[in-house]
């Protein structure tokens, strides 16, 4: 971690202060909206932004990663029943944040970032776009003033459509006006601050016009003080494992995108594993100081970078700005109109939906389109913490199927001058033949049946032949693949032929011995290759020709 003292540079402090002011001011309504989206006291969203941004700024590798409550994570929190129905729901929320942080911390310390590559783009596109739709549908009650009923957001939306005559027009008008103001003002010199001004203007119209429209004060107490530490409810941790894992996974996926797209000022890309650690530390701090779960926010990171941030000091400044707003303007925050915040969230949801990504995946192929569609539908109708894990499962299955279907086998044919010509393998092993086979692709358990199907068949005409299988570069084959080798060796042996293996890895030799493949093939038919590529193959091929000639002296071997 960079020393704080080294960050106070006259060359960068002004730019960082301005960027921090922009992010800090913008994060106040955004944080409140995040809490509202999660269905908790909006101030817990604001606390999460303040503490998460500061702690993340200290511990992440990335200088510009803003660790805040993201829309996807807030939607997951909204679907965690314990957060809303327990005897002490607030402590459950804070415990969820801490447990999420622990999982993130473990992922970072053990450098588990490689796991994220198993999640297919189709799954992420389906999930993120469904989250965008969920954000919009989840705010229709606050946006229209009608409390719809139903088991999920889709059902409640249909209930609203059926009962559209019960929409509270003043509430709806403030929501629509806020959306229009934000969209228009963001295109002026105000830029991102147009969001803040739009919400202030929309909320200010409520008392001016004398309308009865719900405000933050009506649903929660907005304190004018900073949060005090609070211990988690340890007894609830076991019941929160699934949602915490889902939250950690979402946060890390989004954070990995920031790590890969926001190089530091020196041009170097940050360490993704250390960013995991930073997000984990931020969540633990957020949970202790009364906040909801947080993760790397792409929108906030983009904002602070575009605002001119030079170092991570911009993130620390933004947290100080949020703290000042809470202390000085806490009472005023309570008068923000609920439909104004709902309008802000609906804009966020709309911008989360990426039609271009959907179109791209759809054109990739039927399988990818199906995976995206299934993930989208599941995310819309089941609690998100389960939809996330199902999406990960779909990605894993898709990866296994894809890898198992990519295995191929080629035949190498020597030309007599030390060169090898590559061709398709023969369908059968002929009489008095020497066949060199080189497999390509993954050879793990799911690919073993495909590999076995591609091997040349041992038929009634097969006799006095040798099949050489080159496994150089393989470090782990597994028992399923070993069974294939043993069966094929036994088939060849029954036809008075044999299988020869070439491998350099000691672990492969150990696996061959413990799975009885060595016994089936014969230790003399297992060659250990060295640093000279091709030398062992030439020796094995020459020995095979001699063996064929000795067993079938009247036949010519392959040359």
Would you write up a description of this structure?
It is a single chain. The protein has 559 residues and is an alpha/beta fold. The chain folds into two domains: 4-400, no CATH class; 408-551, Transcription Regulator spoIIAA, CATH 3.30.750. The protein contains 25 helices and eight strands. The N and C termini lie far apart (63 Å).
Quick description:
By secondary structure, this protein is α/β, with parallel strands linked by helices. Helix content is 60%, strand content 7%.
Question: Which descriptors apply to this entry?
Answer:
6-stranded mixed β-sheet, 8 strands, Transcription Regulator spoIIAA, 559 residues, elongated, alpha/beta, two-stranded antiparallel sheet, 2 domains
**Measured on Cα atoms, how large is the radius of gyration?**
31 Å
> How much helical structure, as a percent, in the residues?
55-70%
Overall pLDDT level: 88
- The secondary structure category is alpha/beta
| Domain count | 2
Q: Give the tally of β-strands.
A: 8
Sheet with the most strands: spatial strand order: 4-3-5-6-7-8
Strand fraction band?
5-15%
Shape: elongated
Outline the low-pLDDT stretches: 555-559
In DSSP terms (H or I, runs of 4 or more residues), the helix count works out at: 25
The description of the largest β-sheet is: 6 strands, mixed
**Spatial gap, N to C terminus:** 63 Å
